[in-house]
Amino acid sequence: MALWMLRAGRHGEYEDRFLSTSRIYLTWGDTIPSDARGFSSRGDVAQTLRDGWPDASEGKIRNHAGQIWAFLRTMKPDDLIVVPSKKTPDLHFGVIRSDAQFDPGVEPDYRHFREVTWLRDVPRSTMDKDILYSLGAIMTICEISRNDAEARIRRMLQLRSQNSAPATSLVDTPREETATTFDYEELALDEISALIIRRFKGHDLEILVEEILKAQGYFTYRSTPGPDRGVDILAGGGDLGFGAPRICVQVKSQQSPVDHPTFSQLLGTMQRVGADQGLLVSWGGFKSTVMQEVTRHFFNVRLWNHHALLEQLFQHYDSLPDSIRAEIPLKRIWAVVPGELNESA
């Protein structure tokens, strides 16, 4: 058996579809012919890509052909699958339950699929660093095989180990070529996220959010730990906070996504304290019932998941007090942006 990583789009645009349908999809769109299960070899896939991408390098052709072939033929039922979330700080783990299937009646990105049984979500911060490093590969589809990863994940998920022959290599390019191709930004974000969770546990995350708001120019009030009736932070414009906007903030440091009752509580608290706008910060993200309210409350409520909080941290880092920067010591570096060799179509 094997452990596979599959990305649900560069921005997580396919993630909800993966989870709600209990399927994973070959999201290469019109690049793939009507039914690619008829390919007899990776060479057939590569030739189709050459025809569709006449200006693409041979390296890119081989890389994408390897990923597509892995989805069509190399993956097997009972293999493990992990989908890194772009919406929460989680990894979605599941078990592949079918060979590649084809549905001609849907959009191109969803025509080729495999059935999956989703097992559970695991916070990235709880994963061993070497496995997280492997998950930093920038390819859309990748076998994770280093350091006995598949057996370790099965033990973590309390699944019975499977005995089988070693899985086929994913691509026919030299191993050292793929081994060093990682998304170093994602790896850095994992380390920063883990540090924040350690240094700002529980109610302490409110301290970080308050300091970011202060760096944005707001005058703030933060409730002491304990029953706060839905008020974690109040923020207002002007030197004394009497100006607009007047913001009521709730901060949730839990790893799991918050649900609609939490959102409704924020709306009620905003009315009670006379706030014009609300900010709901949830490290673990938001359930779909909350995301459905985004359009309706666009002009009076903002949602920050852990990605949004990190963006604000980076944007205002230089204006944060020394005490916060000491807890989160960061340094800007220059790095080469990965090319399109391993990017999905």
Summarize the structure in words.
This protein is α+β, with helices and mostly antiparallel strands and 345 residues long. Helix content is 34%, strand content 19%. The chain contains 12 helices and 12 strands. The protein has helices at residues 15-21, 42-52, 58-74, 129-134, 149-156, 175-179, 184-199, 204-215, 260-273, 288-291, 306-316, 322-327; strands at residues 3-6, 23-25, 80-84, 90-96, 101-102, 112-123, 141-143, 219-222, 233-237, 243-252, 277-282, 301-304. Strands 1, 2, 3, 4, 5, 6 and 7 form a 7-stranded mixed sheet that branches. The protein has a 5-stranded mixed sheet with strand order 8-9-10-11-12, with helices on both faces. Strand 11, helix 10 (288-291) and strand 12 (301-304) form a beta-alpha-beta unit. The longest helix has 17 residues, at 58-74. Mean pLDDT is 88; it is low at 163-180 and 340-345.
Give the ordered list of helices and strands.
Answer: EHEHHEEEEHEHHHHEEEHEHEHH
> Shape from CA axes?
elongated
Helical content stands at 25-40%
Strand content: 15-25%
- Number of helical segments with 4 or more residues: 12
Sheet of most strands:
7 strands, mixed
Radius of gyration: 23 Å
* Computed structural class: alpha+beta
First-last Cα distance: 28 Å
In total, the number of strands is 12
Runs in which pLDDT lies below 50 for 5 or more consecutive residues are 163-180, 340-345
Query: Residue-averaged pLDDT, rounded?
Result: 88
